[in-house]
């Protein structure tokens, strides 16, 4: 028989007890994500004061006992009594769900914390929370245990602890704020310090210092003029970087950059001064964190434009473009009447749009979006409006310039898709509105419908002027942007075709494979090697020297196209480049799929001379720009053919010694003379691979049992991008200066000739 079910079976959870029972409803999870979300709620409340123009400095402190403290110089939480509850404003804010000043238009026009549950939820999920408010010339204090107000009996008031004896305030008795000091009447602000409750958060929950720094940095971009300081008391005062050191770096960052100085620590002249050190450090209760300075300060004045500049990685195609505007919309909302009742009312809202964007020479997309200062990783109506306006205007510009861009409008396949536009795009999309509608308390997606047409219209008008070049100073830049987008379209179309025709199955019968490819036997995918051979003469020798079971040969004629200077369409029209992409069989650009590569080793086999070295560099440029995962996964190698052959005589007649440089030859001859080993005077010097016979080429360069290969690695992508741009790009003066500056440090052993 089932148990009886009546009214006595019902459980009523009131107030913050419901939060402790179902924390996931309010912070998403009880792991690391939820732990960090609590901190964001407190920080966002302080940032809201900055958005209201009442705060210009926030300090986040990581205490040694595992507690976190957020302090601001805003107006301070109200300390007077709220008429309806008969409680002080501090207790209302920290103990009552859906209570705050952000439900109307008076105190906050645009805020991050909007549901009125942020501070109270953090309070409920903390083993202890202390709040201090500077207001009306006094410092007010109140303490809470798991959301309930009361008094702690700390043995040492300077070192409060959640383990101290706690006396809870009697139920239904208003708690008076304790006045613990006096301040100047002009001094206002709020300080909240809390200890996350281990009874709520699971064992995997870990505090992330890097997430904190990333969040603080992005906030400083979004609220120009707001200074945010992060203090980690777990790091000693006398570390490798003192506060004085940081001030010196800050001063250097603000100084104008001279042509002879190296690139500064930060890209923006208004950016923060601190760059974290390498390595890790044990931060006590916070676990092992990246090594960093004890004090890090962030302040920017350039807004989202500086943010895009900071996020941009790679060579810019255009300057940072700014889209700004405002519009109003009407929204029906529930308004609290004088008697506390709710009623529907049509309210006119203001929507402020601020967008910055640029394209860089790559295919990765960086698009971040915010509502007020809250990041919306899932996007929402503001992002939808931006992308709709962006796509519409770019398609129109491509159609208007179809002849110049060599786009056949009659070909249905030649249509710009959103992926083509997004390749290389770096954008920050922000809107500021009162009472935005989010999908859930974690605020991942904006759901306010009227925002989409507003952002779309503003983007249409302003971006349309930029991309058509009608706005002064944008004509040349818009031309480069359109060329890149059309190039991405061609690459996508070509990649799809390439992917369809470059599978190993029936590869020998495939008409798409270049006729000059001498492929290996199918079935050896895990060990298959592709030799890219310089010249037809070397190809003939290599055919006789290879193991046809797993070694394929593709000859190239002379020096291929320098793809760093060429456009994407020029690269795709180059027969040698197209042949290499087809033979590798994994596509190119953003669609490159390393799992589809037909070979696990791609070996550049060129002559051991300057021309051979140049050809290798051109091939590497192709791999880096359009097949980068080949380098990242260690698939690319350089063969090392010998330069000389020494034929031994006497008792060792028939033996040969190969050397790979003039210095090595001289040293080897001295060694043979010292050991009285005879050798023929006519030492053979190879002018190219074609001068070797098949046995010699196999023994020295192709046979895995005796050859030497050099694997091409890329440990630092940013540095690699700078090197390719410098050495292979269009800008000649920096390359010339680089050669002049480094000529004295030339070391032949560092190059593969």
Automatic annotation (TrEMBL):
EC numbers on record: 5.6.2.2
Similarity comment: family membership: Belongs to the type II topoisomerase GyrB family.
Cofactors required: Mg(2+)
Organism (species): Bifidobacterium vespertilionis
Keywords, sorted A to Z: ATP-binding, DNA-binding, Isomerase, Magnesium, Metal-binding, Nucleotide-binding, Topoisomerase
One Gene Ontology molecular-function label: metal ion binding
One example of a Gene Ontology biological process annotation: DNA topological change
Source superkingdom: Bacteria
InterPro entries: DNA_gyrase_B_C, HATPase_C_sf, HATPase_dom, Ribosomal_Su5_D2-typ_SF, Ribsml_uS5_D2-typ_fold_subgr, Topo_IIA, Topo_IIA-like_dom_sf, Topo_IIA_B
Presence of the UniProt keyword Isomerase in the record: yes
Family matches, as PANTHER family: DNA GYRASE SUBUNIT B, MITOCHONDRIAL, DNA GYRASE/TOPOISOMERASE SUBUNIT B
Domain Toprim: 528-642
One Pfam assignment: DNA_gyraseB_C
Enzyme class label: isomerase
Name of the protein described by the UniProt record: DNA topoisomerase (ATP-hydrolyzing)
Catalyses which reaction(s): ATP-dependent breakage, passage and rejoining of double-stranded DNA
